[in-house]
TrEMBL record:
Any one annotated GO CC term: post-mRNA release spliceosomal complex
Pfam families in alphabetical order: CwfJ_C_1 (PF04677), CwfJ_C_2 (PF04676)
Record organism: Schistocephalus solidus (Tapeworm)
GO molecular function, one term: RNA lariat debranching enzyme activator activity
Region entry Disordered, spans: 1-20, 41-90
Name this polypeptide is given: CWF19-like protein 1
Domain Cwf19-like C-terminal: 88-204
Family: Belongs to the CWF19 family.
Compositional bias segments (type: Basic and acidic residues): 49-61
Top-level lineage group: Eukaryota
Name of the gene this protein is made from: C19L1
InterPro entries for the chain: Cwf19-like, Cwf19-like_C_dom-1, Cwf19-like_C_dom-2, HIT-like_sf
Cwf19-like protein C-terminal domain boundaries: 223-310
BP GO annotations: mRNA splicing, via spliceosome
């Protein structure tokens, strides 16, 4: 007997009266998606509802996030996190429609400063400050943990070069990775004056608890720690490298993703204690004409050429 005959429904069978309810139960929840905009290097935050109080408790006080170490890939907290994909995310060298993949014709190539073998340097649209740069992967990798050793080597080389470039101008480097609402690795690199470098840690720690749209409560990582010790593939997080060499990090709760603002890192650095430029938090308010962007990128190429490692 064929398979079709085995699974065929008898002509006098009655349809399942609960099928509609079953479909609602087994239908998977919608996935967090990246929002493509006309801005080359950013995603847009999800639209907030005035009724959304998921990030507040007890009279407006912010939830508490506890940094917990993972052991052998098993979360040590007591939350039911079965919906999080614990498998390694699929990685392809390029991905159609990704505005960060250099092979995509929609990429604003006039913003690219320099390209190495595994990573490249670019200026974002609507930069926070003049020397605001992005380190991105040439291949399509979602975050740092998905990057192979060879890719990480180029990323680290860019960081070393940029740190030296900023130092020559009396500035210190702050870098952060926003691993939510994006599907391609991007490290934001922003210089701050030496005179305020020591205040960056306090600003991130404080505003991660009090600023509306903060994705999580940041905490210090041990000096010898790696991100893999505190997270796993598929888990969103926010990560900061401070001028002092210290690192801040925490994962983002799945029910807090929608209210997390992609401009959080910019907001912290734009605060009065650091760069004091609150009008530049939103990249849309910092856009320039393409001719000016091209001119700024050309200046950055010339400046960075003295510190180029490739």
């Amino acid at each position: 007997m064929s398979r079709s005959e085995l699974v065929a429904q008898p002509p006098d069978a009655t349809d399942n009266p609960y099928w509609d309810q079953l479909k609602k139960i087994i239908r998977p929840p919608p996935k967090e998606t990246e929002v493509q905009t006309e801005q080359f290097f950013y995603a847009l935050p999800a639209k907030r509802s005035g009724k959304d109080q998921s990030n507040r408790e007890d009279g407006g006080r912010r939830k508490s996030w506890k940094l917990r170490k993972f052991a052998d890939g098993t979360p040590s907290d007591d939350t039911d996190d079965k919906s999080v994909n614990t498998n390694n995310p699929p990685v392809r060298n390029t991905q159609d429609g990704c505005w960060f993949c250099l092979g995509n014709p929609q990429v604003a190539k006039h913003l690219v400063v320099t390209i190495a073998t595994q990573a490249y340097l670019a200026m974002p649209r609507g930069p926070l400050v003049k020397d605001h740069l992005l380190i991105l992967t040439v291949g399509h990798y979602q975050n740092w943990m998905a990057c192979p050793v060879s890719v990480r080597k180029d990323i680290d080389s860019y960081k070393t070069s940029l740190r030296a470039m900023y130092k020559a101008e009396g500035k210190a480097m702050v870098a952060f990775e926003r691993n939510f609402k994006t599907h391609h690795y991007q490290l934001q690199v922003i210089p701050v004056p030496f005179c305020v470098a020591a205040e960056v840690k306090k600003a991130f720690l404080t505003l991660s608890q009090t600023l509306e749209g903060s994705p999580c409560r940041l905490e210090s990582l041990p000096k010898s720690a790696a991100l893999e010790d505190f997270s796993r593939p598929g888990v969103p997080y926010f990560y900061v490298e401070l001028p002092t060499g210290e690192k801040l990090f925490n994962t983002i709760e799945k029910d807090h993703l929608a209210s997390s603002d992609i401009n959080f890192g910019r907001a912290v650095l734009a605060s009065p204690e650091i760069l004091n430029c609150p009008s530049r938090v939103n990249w849309r308010e910092c856009l320039e004409e393409e001719a000016i962007e091209t001119e700024l990128t050309t200046e950055l190429r010339k400046k960075f050429s003295k510190f180029e490692f490739t």
